[in-house]
Amino acid sequence: MDISEQTFLILSALADQPRHGYAVVTEVDQMTDGRIRLRAGTLYGALDRLVAQGLIAPDHDEVEKGRLRRFYKLTDAGADAIRAESRRMADAVRLAEERLNKRAARNAPRLGTIG
């Protein structure tokens, strides 16, 4: 199952502990050094979709400053999806590095040649 970068980051944000929506946004922001900033509409649509897919599940609700916060947790299927995507990305990086190394070797100056 290929997953988008945003989905991968949302799942990763939930990998170590349950979080509510705003905490997921904050965690993704920190994980990406601000490169990815999830908007509320995007996040809550994604959370609903991930629940429907069985990758995350509601954990519990808390009232904080008069606001209800729903916490979500990663499921075993969600953890499997993170692992699979991590392997896929690692393979892609390895292949890209191999090609770059071939390019560098091909373009390296050769001793004894006049150029």
Walk me through the topology.
Elements: H1 5-13, E1 19-20, H2 21-31, H3 40-52, E2 56-64, E3 67-74, H4 76-107
Antiparallel strand pairs: 1-3, 2-3
Helix pairs in contact: 1-2, 2-3
What's a quick, concise take on this entry?
This is PadR family transcriptional regulator. The protein has 115 residues and is of the alpha+beta class.
Strand order of the largest sheet: 1-3-2
User: What's the helical proportion of residues?
Assistant: 55-70%
The best one-word shape is elongated
CATH fold annotation: Arc Repressor Mutant, subunit A
How many domain modules? 1
Class, according to the CATH hierarchy? Mainly Alpha
Q: Residue-averaged pLDDT, rounded?
A: 93
Oligomer: single chain
Number of strands: 3
Low-confidence stretches: none
User: What's the CATH superfamily, by name?
Assistant: Winged helix-like DNA-binding domain superfamily/Winged helix DNA-binding domain
CATH architecture name: Orthogonal Bundle
Distance between the termini: 49 Å
- Helix tally? 4
Order of helices and strands: HEHHEEH
- Please indicate the percent range of residues in DSSP E strands (runs of 2 or more): 15-25%
Biggest pleated sheet? 3 strands, antiparallel
Broad structural category: alpha+beta
Radius of gyration: 20 Å
